[in-house]
Design brief:
Elements (H helix, E strand, L loop, with lengths): L2 H21 L1 H8 L5 H26 L3 H28 L4 H23 L5
């Protein structure tokens, strides 16, 4: 797999989750089996907008010929996915969340590992 392909795979997930969080936050919480109050719905919409913003980075990263740009985008996405993985782990272990919480944790973890691979083990292939 190449970094551009990882951007493309991540873009699909980012568009789905970004749009879902932005436009269907109650559905997202129901998907996790969690009840949300209005402030959580507001924060989820903000998160959705951020995820869609990251999706634009993935889109441009997928298309750019600049190695430096791809590497910079990979750093941003690595940090976002690492924080997402750690936050998902805390959320899953602290609250009563259904199986989908583990799926989110795994998705963030796999993406973080993918970006770490390209940044730290194969930086020449960025």
């Amino acid at each position: 797999m190449k970094l551009r392909q990882l951007f493309a795979v991540n873009l699909v997930f980012a568009l789905f989750f970004g749009a879902s969080c932005t436009f269907l936050p109650r559905w997202v919480f129901a998907f996790y089996g969690v009840h949300a109050e209005d402030p959580a719905l507001w924060a989820t919409r903000l998160l959705g907008g951020s995820i869609l913003g990251f999706a634009t980075l993935m889109w441009f990263g997928h298309r750019t010929p600049s190695v430096d740009s791809r590497r910079s985008i990979a750093v941003a996405l690595f940090l976002q996915d690492l924080i997402g993985c750690l936050s998902s782990l805390h959320f899953q272990l602290t609250y009563d969340v259904n199986l989908f919480g583990w799926c989110s944790l795994a998705l963030y973890g796999v993406l973080a590992l993918g970006y770490a691979f390209f940044l730290f083990f194969r930086p020449a292939s960025c």
